[in-house]
């Protein structure tokens, strides 16, 4: 009993144990051939917000691989089989996932880094973000009230404030968000065609968007801003930088969203230089709220 009382796990060990769920949550398989990935055991659907798919029949073996859902001749999902055997929500999510026609090997990705590679630095930010989320997940939380007030005080156009408000609530209709709402569309980012279009991908991780941040007046590497959720990135900037920088971050995010919409709805190619031009115009008219 004395030994138990005297036992204390080291700080490092406790940190690693505590971080394990965050590390696991940050990994997911990108499906190629689907031969390495178990349908019901591994994290793979949609890359984020993983939920295990639910079958409505008992046709599929519990240890079946994702490759069982792929038609290798057609290089496409077995749509009918998937719709017959999975609940509608899961069938829609699977069928909406992009399958490369080359059917490469499956690849384990770390979604907190730009290139999908795990690193200590990005793990640190992911863990930090997780602990911050525990305190600031809801905008109505007392520690967020000040942040919301600050947003409304920014010297930016009202339409940009509303955009930021929706972005912080993760309520913008990104492709991934629409798939989560059971709308059968391809969730892949229209700008780069490489990752699911979550708000975090679109704003901070998309390799076509990164030059906008690097050449903006903020001149920042967006991976340093990527605290899991867009809201956390904004909160962190507000806490640590002058108001001017928060305004520039908001305007930059809005210009990226506008350019994305022009690509999706008007088929105008996304061009970082055009976005920077828009950003310059909006930045100079900042006080016209
Ligand atoms: Zn992208």
Secondary structure topology:
Layout: H1 2-6, H2 11-25, E1 27-30, E2 70-71, E3 76-77, H3 79-85, H4 88-96, E4 107-110, H5 120-136, H6 142-153, H7 158-168, H8 175-180, H9 199-205, H10 210-215, H11 230-240, H12 243-266, H13 272-284
Antiparallel strand pairs: 1-4, 2-3
Helix pairs in contact: 3-4, 7-12, 12-13
How would you portray this structure in words?
- With 289 residues, the protein is mostly helical.
- The chain folds into two domains: 27-110, no CATH class; 138-284, no CATH class.
- It is 49% helix and 4% strand.
- The chain has 13 helices and four strands.
- It has a two-stranded antiparallel ribbon with strand order 1-4.
- The longest helix is centred in the C-terminal third of the chain and has 24 residues, at 243-266.
- The chain is elongated.
- The protein binds zinc ion.
- Residues 131-213 form the Reverse transcriptase zinc-binding domain.
- This is Reverse transcriptase zinc-binding domain-containing protein.
- It comes from Rehmannia glutinosa (Chinese foxglove).
- It holds the Pfam family zf-RVT.
């Amino acid at each position: 009993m004395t030994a138990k009382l005297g036992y204390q796990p080291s700080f490092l060990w406790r940190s690693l144990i505590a971080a394990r769920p965050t590390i696991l949550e940050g990994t997911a398989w990108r499906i190629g051939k689907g031969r390495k990935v178990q349908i019901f055991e591994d994290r793979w659907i949609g890359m984020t917000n993983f939920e295990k798919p639910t079958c409505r029949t008992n046709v599929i073996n519990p240890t079946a691989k994702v490759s069982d859902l792929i038609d290798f001749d057609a290089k496409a999902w077995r749509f009918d089989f998937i719709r017959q055997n999975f609940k509608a929500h899961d069938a829609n999510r699977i069928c909406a996932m992009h399958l490369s026609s080359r059917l490469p090997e499956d690849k384990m990705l770390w979604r907190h880094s730009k290139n999908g590679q795990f690193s200590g630095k990005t793990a640190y930010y992911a863990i930090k973000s997780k602990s911050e989320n525990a305190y600031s997940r809801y905008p109505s939380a007392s520690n967020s009230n000040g942040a919301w007030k600050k947003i409304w005080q920014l010297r930016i156009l009202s339409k940009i404030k509303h955009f930021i408000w929706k972005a912080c609530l993760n309520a913008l209709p990104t492709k991934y968000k629409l798939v989560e709402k059971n709308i059968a569309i391809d969730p892949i980012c229209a700008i780069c065609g490489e990752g699911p279009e979550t708000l975090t991908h679109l704003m901070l991780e998309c390799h076509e968007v990164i030059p906008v941040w690097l050449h903006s007046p903020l001149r920042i590497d967006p991976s340093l801003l990527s605290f899991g959720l867009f809201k956390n990135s904004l909160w962190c900037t507000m806490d640590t930088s002058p108001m001017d920088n928060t305004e520039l971050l908001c305007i930059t995010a809005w210009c990226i969203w506008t350019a994305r919409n022009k690509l999706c709805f008007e088929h105008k190619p996304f061009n970082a230089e055009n976005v920077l031009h828009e950003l310059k115009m909006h930045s100079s008219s900042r006080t016209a709220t």
